[in-house]
Amino acid sequence: MRTAIVTDSTAYIPAEERARLNIHMIPLSVNISGQLFAEEVDITASEFYDKVRGSKEFPKTTQPPIGEFVSLFEELAKEYDEVISIHLSSGISGTYHGAVQAGEMVEGIDMYAFDTEISCAVQGFYVLRAAEMAAQGCSAKEILATLADMKQYARAYFIVDDLAHLQRGGRLSSAAALIGGLLQVKPVLHFVDKVIVPFEKIRTRKKALRRAEELMAEDAKKYEAMDAVVIHANCQAEAEEWLAQLAATYPNVDFKLSYFGPVIGTHLGEGSLGLCWIKK
User: Fold this and answer.
1) What was the pLDDT predicted at 216?
2) Distance CA 116, CA 252 (A)
3) What are phi and psi of 209, to 5 degrees?
4) Which residue pairs, CB below 8 angstroms and at least 24 apart, start in 39-43?
């Protein structure tokens, strides 16, 4: 059995890594002042933040058309027996359901959709593991069992400067955003039941970053080895400084740097930071 691995652009896996591991990517898009850009294809993260800064309109995000999934699955059917399509949380996007619908329309290949219930680099953890296993000849059933097991060890926390982006985009309740604005807090956010919710309300950015580190440290003590990623929304220097400090403090954790691209950046806002990790 040959198993293909598909994901969407919000995993933010670099193009060279996707090519090396034979990962197929379907992009989500962002609409800026009436112009549609497919992220990771038509626009880079830094270009997006520059454009948005000069725009009077709040950008909107769009899931991939089902037809793009259908075309890709039909093409994969020529070479593969099965495909696993791994996507950002179905609680914040219809992308996962689009993949499911497309899979029902294509013959000649068995399609399995996997809802990561999260996004960004954690989604990438699942995709990379799936691709590595597929390259070793593992079946979709074996890969999906591993991905399901990974969920109990995956963690991600996000620190945003302004909750208004999440509220305007419908990814956070108006009440939560209002409270955050009134108190001028820097909330630590996370995913619960597929949606983004506040974890703790913290007064300063420095303390919010420290709290995310404390949460990671708890797992670093429990597990022999972990993978972790620092994610930034166009604040790379700050992210690199934080990563260097973390790497020096936790030798059993392998750290990488990633970014919030246009689609997720639309909802979190420029200057956001994230820390996510998983047991190896």
Assistant:
1) 98
2) 25
3) -65, -40
4) 39/9, 39/10, 39/261, 39/262, 39/263, 40/9, 40/12, 40/15, 40/261, 41/9, 43/262
